[in-house]
Design a protein that fits this description.
Blueprint: H1 15-26, E1 43-45, H2 47-54, E2 63-67, H3 71-82, E3 85-90, E4 95-100, E5 103-109, H4 115-119, E6 130-132, E7 138-140, H5 145-151, E8 153-154, H6 159-164, H7 167-179, E9 182-183, H8 185-193, H9 203-214, H10 219-229, H11 256-271, H12 274-279, H13 284-300, H14 314-323, H15 328-332, H16 337-347, H17 363-370, H18 376-390, H19 397-415
Parallel strand pairs: 2-5, 8-9
Antiparallel strand pairs: 1-2, 1-6, 3-4, 4-5, 6-7
Length: 422
Amino acid sequence: MPPRCGSAPILTGDRDKLAEISLQRLKPATWPVSPAELPTGAVLVGGAVRDALLDRLTDTPDLDLVVPGNALESTRQLAQKHRGACVVLDEARDMARLVLGGWTIDLARQEGATLEDDLSRRDYRLNAIALSFDGTPRLIDPTGGLEDLSSGRIVAVREANLQEDPLRLIRGLRLTAELGMTMNSQTLMMLRRNRSLLPKAAPERIQAELMRLTAAPDADRAIQTLLDLKLLKPWTTNMADQSPAATVRRADLLTDSERRQALPLARLTQLLPDEGLKELRFSRRQLQRCERLRHWIERSSSDQGDPCLEQFSEQERLQLHKDLEKDLPALIVTWPKELQQSWLKRWRDPQDPLFHPRSPLDGDTLQKALSISPGPSLGALIQHLCLERAYGRVSTREQALNAARSWLSYRAVQADPNGSCD
C-alpha cells in the first residue's frame, strides 16, 4: 500500500514536539491493539517511527515494538484476546508477530541492558530511532538517525551489524529506492566488502527485498548500484548463458497503474536470469512472467539492440500478444520512446483483436456446430480462428464458421491427399 498523503516531513526542531507530532501521525487510536494493552515499557522502533517523521505512513503501518521481556508470551496473549494469529519469528531471541485485521505488530525482547544498546545493534541509523509513548512521547536517537533523515542519507550503524544479518546489505539499497535517499560512501564500501555473506540470508528474504526494491519509486538508481556492487553475483553466474534483458528505458507514456504493473517485472528480468529466480524461490507465476518477457525481448531485438518487429510472422505476432497480453508494457518500456506510443494505444483498447487475441468461437460452439470432438484438432482450429480474427479476416459468427469449415476441409485433404470425393 502506498504511503498516505501528508503535510511534510518533520526532521528539525524541538525533539519533544517531533515526538508528539510523530505519535499523532501514527494514530494509535486506530491500532487494533490499544497502547494500554501492550506490555509496560514497550517502545516503537524502526520503519514506523522513520515513516512518521517523513510523513509517509500507510493506513496500516507495520508496527515494530521492543519490550523489556516475554515478547512471545505477550504476543500469544494478545492474539488470544483479539482472535488474531501469533507467528513465532525467533523463539531463541523472543520475537513474535501478531497478525490482526490487516495489521502486523512485531514484538521483540530488548537486546542489551538498555534501549540504547538495542538500537545500536540495528542496521541503519535512520532505522535506529525509537518512540516512547508511555506518558509523554519521547524520541530516542542514540546513533544520529534524525540527522540522516534530514540530510537524505543512509548510513550503517556499524559494519558488524551488517555482518550479523547479511540481508541488511540489500535492505539498505531497497531503502534508497523507497526513500529516494543516497547511501554514504563508507556504507557502500561496507556493502562491497561483505557481499560474499549475502548467500547466508534465506532466499525467501532476499526475494522479498528484491520485490520491494523493483517496485520502489527510485528503483532504477538503486538497481544500478546493486549491479555495480555485484551483490547478486551468486545468482547471476548463468547470465552469460542468456542474453541479458534489455535496459528499462523511460516510461513516461505509461499511466501510474501501468508502471506499477510493468516496471517491477521489467526490472526483475533485467536483474536476474531464470536460474537465479528459481534459486531465490520466486513463485512459478513470477518465473513464467519473467521467462516469457525475456524470450520476447531477445526475440524482438536486432543486432543494434532496437526492436525489429517486421521479422515476425503472423503466428509469431499472435503468440507474442498471447504470451504478454497483460504484461506487454513491460516489453514496450525496453524500446525507444518513439516506438512505444502506437503499441500502447492499441494495447489500451480491449477490443483490439491482435493485442487482446480471442477466438471468435469457443470450443463448445465449434463442437456442436461442426460435429467435431475435443482434442488436438479442436485446439488447432481455435488457434487458427484466433489468428483469422486477429488480422481482421473474420469478424462475424458466420464468417468464423465458414473459416472453420474451410480449415477442416483443408486438413482432411492434407491427411488423405489421395482420397476421392463421392
